[in-house]
């Protein structure tokens, strides 16, 4: 299977993954406000010399309004033009899944399931998007996606996991705002890591269980499925903002 992964939550990043050969072609631009100008060129770059992908996977946020919309609209347009499924994935879950793949299980203590992953992404307005996950085989979610200030996040983590303050070295932070957390030990997956993690997230959603660890799924079953059914599977492409857009129409 070949799939195109699009992520415009923090910047503009794309990856073309061939699961049969394990080849990954990536392209990205670090500017967090140039998605409109850069995304189509990045996609053309990774697709050059390749056959059409079998599906498109795209991050649906949470993320700031404009950049996120660019990625989602582009993914839908490509899916319609190519006649392939378009699958949306939660950004915070993908980040956590990629982080667990980079975190050596032996360093998570006697019981690797005690490890915790905190995804922290820039939400602008001096706020972050965040979520807490267990660093187990299924990257089990321990909170809903949340938006708020870094100062409030510390208390929120304890609300989600009362034992969080005592976990110490069993905690890793991931995301483009992870370095802003005082004393945080961070993991920094690249776009290739995130693209592979997206496939794992899709497979778990289709399996209907966070405990599933396989990454294979039957793509044919997804062809022609409605957006509503994909949403029920956790794979819809409706954007996740968690708050109203920065710019609003005057009344």
UniProtKB/TrEMBL annotation:
The keyword Transferase applies. InterPro entries: ATPase_NBD (IPR043129), Gcp-like_dom (IPR000905), T6A_TsaB (IPR022496). The keyword Magnesium does not apply. Gene3D superfamilies: 3.30.420.40. GO terms for biological process: tRNA threonylcarbamoyladenosine modification. GO terms for molecular function: transferase activity. Residues 54-203 form the Gcp-like domain. Keywords: Transferase. This is tRNA (Adenosine(37)-N6)-threonylcarbamoyltransferase complex dimerization subunit type 1 TsaB. It comes from Mobiluncus mulieris.
